[in-house]
Amino acid sequence: MLRVRSQNSVYEQEAKFVQDRITGVEKHFAELCTIFAAFTRKAARLRDKSDELAKVIQVYGDSETINRSMSTGLANFSATLSVVGDYRDAEVQRLDAKVIAPLSQYAIICKHARDDVKNTFAARDREFTRRRQLDKVRERNPRNRQMISQAESELMKASVEVSRVVKGLEEQINSFERRKLHDLKSVLLDFVTIELSFHTKALELMTKAYQDIVSIDEIKDLEDFQIARGEMNAEFRETMRAPDSVTRLDTVNRTSFRHAYSLMNLANRFCNTDSVQTGFTNSSESVQVEEYADSTEETESESIREKPVRTRHKSM
Fold first, then answer.
1. Residue 192: which of 85, 81, 39, 42 has the closest Cα?
2. Which stretches does UniProt call biased (Acidic residues) (predicted)?
3. Residue 110 burial by CB count (10 A; 0-12/13-18/19+): exposed, middle or buried?
4. CA distances from 256 to 31, 248, 249 (A)
5. What CATH number should be reported for the domain whose range is 19-225?
6. Torsions phi, psi of 313, nearest 5?
7. Which of 223-259 are b and which e, b meaning 16 or more Cβ less than 10 Å from the residue's Cβ?
8. Which of 146-150, 176-180, 271-275 has the lowest mean pLDDT?
9. DSSP letter assigned to residue 66
10. Where are the alpha helices (H) located in the chain, listed in sequence order?
């Protein structure tokens, strides 16, 4: 009995050890899968933003008509960024296929390994049960060879099943550990290789992009701008010459109007001298008229004073 209990404790320790290994692999591989998936999503977003940047630069380069070297440099720079985006897209696809996919499979792999462990320990439990039954039969019916032999045959079958399952479990656990080590190493090496490949190409293309920007001739583009601006200024001066003739015509009209106005003033002055002379001849008559007017006003005032004044009552 003590031997059975000791075997049971050994089985429990071994079961706990195997279960802890499977649980640790499942946990850490799930965390690796999550973080690599987030890394890949960030790379995909950076790829999309790189494509948008290349498109904006291309539109700017196509719209530029004066700075020709800048237009050419922006077009080449946009094309280089597009190629970088293509390599980044390849990076995303490779990460998804060679890193995330193998890590995501370990949820199923760990589940199968846990089921195998459960089956193994279920077979051991059946063996332990058959052994206890045999011991009980021997204690209760020591002379019943038929029941004892039947219990011994069932125990033998359970033991064979346990040995088979245990051997298969050991092979499966070793295979699980071997596959885990190989897959983890392979995944990390693939990740490093993918990143090295991308960054090598990106370094080469970014060097070309640097040369595309350096090739922009600032002095030549500034000269082209000044030439275009000079042509526009010449056209502007041509358009501004027509109003000068109009202003000259206005000044001529104003001076002629001033001369005519001065002549009219001279004519009016001569006319005023003639009116002064006629005024002196008619002065005696005007005096007599004024005196007559005063006398009539006095008589009217005297008649008004003689009449009584009537007051008006306000109507309520």
1. 39
2. 291-301
3. buried
4. 99, 13, 11
5. 1.20.1270.60
6. -85, 140
7. ebeeeeeeeeeeeeeeeeeeeeeeeeeeeeeeeeeee
8. 271-275
9. S
10. 2-63, 68-95, 101-104, 106-140, 145-214, 218-281, 283-306
Sign of CA dihedral 234, 239, 240, 245: positive
* Spatial distance between the Cα atoms of 117 and 169, rounded to a whole number of angstroms: 7
- Closest listed residue to residue 29, CA positions, set 108, 97, 103: 103
Amino acid residing at 228 = A
CB 62 within 8 A of CB 184: no
Q: Which of 32-36, 96-100, 299-303 has the lowest mean pLDDT?
A: 299-303
* 209 close to 81: Cβ distance less than 8 angstroms: yes
| pTM of the predicted model as reported, rounded to 2 decimal places | 0.63
Those residues with Cβ within 8 angstroms of residue 75's Cβ, 6 or more apart along the chain or in another chain: 58, 61, 62
Question: How far is it between the farthest Cα atoms of the chain?
Answer: 187
What token pair was written down for 51? 């494509």
In angstroms, the CA 110 to CA 21 distance is 10
Angle of CA points 11, 16, 22, to nearest 5°: 125
Q: Which helix (H) or strand (E) holds 217?
A: none
Cβ of 43: how many Cβ atoms within 10 Å?
A: 19
Using left for φ > 0, alpha for ψ between -120 and 50, and beta otherwise, residue 96 falls in: alpha
Q: What is the pLDDT of residues 246-290, one digit of tens each?
A: 455 455 455 554 555 555 554 555 555 454 444 444 444 443 434
Residues 47-93 pLDDT 10s: 999 999 999 999 999 998 888 899 999 999 999 999 999 999 999 99
